[in-house]
């Protein structure tokens, strides 16, 4: 199901929930009483927003207390890179979680989580381009062309930009179906991120974490494929029943 449809379904579900009073007559349905979900969603969103700042706070705290280790730039690059991947995985897990638990409200955290992935990716890239390359564009381009792990990391970052730029609700309304097609790029981004991590660690003969995150991404993508195939089969069965009834 598309995100537009999901958003609509979630909105309908919220409206039909027992705790939601219908709008008073004369308001044309525009005024909607706040449901129980609406009441906890705001504090929960603030909680998630603050919690997601933990990786940044940790870097700042370690920096202030001289605990970034012998190579602070490497520490910051690796930390922001890993947290980008963590937020990408959490963002990808939102829809499966919603389907498995039936809690539609989790979808309302997805945009924030996706934007945090972009935020940490930007910090990651900025650390590299600033402290590793001192804004030497020629050096950066050479690196992108020469080192495959940088090439795929850069591709993942470039693909993230249009997703972040079109994350506001206004963009969703304006783009319609094209929004959903565009945002499917998140799967390609996750695969590129794993390749980036894998290639980087392969040189160091330390593939434990890339294998772990690779398995998480494969499971999340596999769930999507299984859900899509299940939907198609259910559609086919429904069509067969309708055909059966009309020919009888
Ligand atoms: C979505 C985009 C990206 C993700 C998810 C990502 C993720 C990661 C991860 C997980 C690591 C390893 C962290 C660790 O060692 O624990 C890493 C390291 C690194 N990444 Fe990225 N990255 C991305 C984009 C980029 C870009 C655009 C660049 C630069 C053009 C880049 C340059 C690097 C460098 C230089 C390292 C450290 C290599 C080392 O310490 O030897 N990454 N990244």
Automatic annotation (TrEMBL):
<keyword id="KW-0349">Heme</keyword>
<protein>
    <recommendedName>
        <fullName>Protein-methionine-sulfoxide reductase heme-binding subunit MsrQ</fullName>
    </recommendedName>
</protein>
<feature type="region of interest" description="Disordered">
    <location>
        <begin position="1"/>
        <end position="31"/>
    </location>
</feature>
<feature type="transmembrane region" description="Helical">
    <location>
        <begin position="212"/>
        <end position="230"/>
    </location>
</feature>
<dbReference type="GO" id="GO:0020037">
    <property type="term" value="F:heme binding"/>
</dbReference>
<keyword id="KW-0812">Transmembrane</keyword>
<keyword id="KW-0408">Iron</keyword>
<dbReference type="GO" id="GO:0030091">
    <property type="term" value="P:protein repair"/>
</dbReference>
<keyword id="KW-1133">Transmembrane helix</keyword>
<dbReference type="GO" id="GO:0005886">
    <property type="term" value="C:plasma membrane"/>
</dbReference>
<dbReference type="GO" id="GO:0016679">
    <property type="term" value="F:oxidoreductase activity, acting on diphenols and related substances as donors"/>
</dbReference>
<feature type="compositionally biased region" description="Polar residues">
    <location>
        <begin position="1"/>
        <end position="10"/>
    </location>
</feature>
<keyword id="KW-0285">Flavoprotein</keyword>
<keyword id="KW-0288">FMN</keyword>
<keyword id="KW-0479">Metal-binding</keyword>
<keyword id="KW-0813">Transport</keyword>
<feature type="transmembrane region" description="Helical">
    <location>
        <begin position="113"/>
        <end position="131"/>
    </location>
</feature>
<comment type="similarity">
    <text>Belongs to the MsrQ family.</text>
</comment>
<feature type="transmembrane region" description="Helical">
    <location>
        <begin position="82"/>
        <end position="101"/>
    </location>
</feature>
<dbReference type="GO" id="GO:0046872">
    <property type="term" value="F:metal ion binding"/>
</dbReference>
<dbReference type="Pfam" id="PF01794">
    <property type="entry name" value="Ferric_reduct"/>
</dbReference>
<feature type="domain" description="Ferric oxidoreductase">
    <location>
        <begin position="80"/>
        <end position="194"/>
    </location>
</feature>
<comment type="function">
    <text>Part of the MsrPQ system that repairs oxidized periplasmic proteins containing methionine sulfoxide residues (Met-O), using respiratory chain electrons. Thus protects these proteins from oxidative-stress damage caused by reactive species of oxygen and chlorine generated by the host defense mechanisms. MsrPQ is essential for the maintenance of envelope integrity under bleach stress, rescuing a wide series of structurally unrelated periplasmic proteins from methionine oxidation.</text>
</comment>
<keyword id="KW-0472">Membrane</keyword>
<keyword id="KW-0249">Electron transport</keyword>
<feature type="transmembrane region" description="Helical">
    <location>
        <begin position="151"/>
        <end position="172"/>
    </location>
</feature>
<dbReference type="GO" id="GO:0009055">
    <property type="term" value="F:electron transfer activity"/>
</dbReference>
<dbReference type="InterPro" id="IPR022837">
    <property type="entry name" value="MsrQ-like"/>
</dbReference>
<feature type="transmembrane region" description="Helical">
    <location>
        <begin position="184"/>
        <end position="200"/>
    </location>
</feature>
<keyword id="KW-1003">Cell membrane</keyword>
<dbReference type="GO" id="GO:0010181">
    <property type="term" value="F:FMN binding"/>
</dbReference>
<dbReference type="InterPro" id="IPR013130">
    <property type="entry name" value="Fe3_Rdtase_TM_dom"/>
</dbReference>
<feature type="transmembrane region" description="Helical">
    <location>
        <begin position="44"/>
        <end position="62"/>
    </location>
</feature>
<comment type="subunit">
    <text>Heterodimer of a catalytic subunit (MsrP) and a heme-binding subunit (MsrQ).</text>
</comment>
